[in-house]
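As a warm-up, study this chain.
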Amino acid sequence: MKLKPIKPKRISDQVFDQVREFILRGTLKPGDKVMTERELAAAMNVSRTAVRDAIKKLVAQGLLEQKQGKGTFVCEPVRGGSILEQLMDTEKATLPDLLEVRMGLECNAAAIAAQKATERDHRLIEESVAAMKNCLHGGCGGSEADVSFHMALSFATGNPLQVYLMKQIHNILSTGICAVLKKLHENPDNIRKIIRQHEEILASIKAGNAEKAYGDMREHIGFIIEFSAKSPVECLG
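Now compare it with the structure written out below.
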């Protein structure tokens, strides 16, 4: 058996991971200005060189952009920019097509999260549900909190491909011509149902009940599919 030496993770890679996670989770949103190199270095207790290297990598991956004299910003999603979006445009995919994919991805994600989620994952999912409730009382739709919930659940699987695919799907939902999703959030009764569904998914994950978490997510996505059938959208692009 030939063993390889364990290499410590570079500081710049750890900085990269943290900032990337903030972007994927939606904590840093498209258009947001990122702290300066000096501020990030101080907040993370690392060198400015490590921060600079991490920023370069994030820029190269299209997650951040640097504007001369203004600073560093989170990139806006570009329609047709990802392989998934290009495929959907080519195939004239519909909203039901995308929701069917979500059904498979997210039901499995809920089941895996029930087995793998950490206390930190539980806390982040709980925070997103709380944000949805606050939006309900405040009169807003809560769509950002909804996206945060599903991204937090994806992170709880510990699978980077799951996280990437869910981020791409939610980018399409956010930037596509999907009036049906806006209508869903216009009715407080719909939002109450969605909050209840999210609470049940969270409870199953915290209880470690993979089978129930799968079923709860299936009920949630099924509700969205049924609603969208009443307000069809021809395509997503």
